[in-house]
Amino acid sequence: MATSGDFILAIDTVRVLGIDETRRGKPRWVLCESTGKRVRQDPWDTGFVDIGGSQGMLGQQCGRTTAAVVEG
Length: 72
Description:
Blueprint: H1 4-9, E1 17-23, E2 28-31, E3 38-41, E4 44-50, E5 56-62, H2 66-71
Antiparallel strand pairs: 1-4, 2-3, 4-5
């Protein structure tokens, strides 16, 4: 079974990295368990693409926060 490390080694050098944020579905209201208040939840994905080369989409991470991008 391939691991993420194996996949990373298979990627060629990327000269221009593109980051694309895509909304999945519609925003919805959910109940926050800690506050008991309704909060808006927006489902987003962050995609990483090779703009300057021919590798296309390199990966995708759920969320659009700094933590999601850095940890992804």
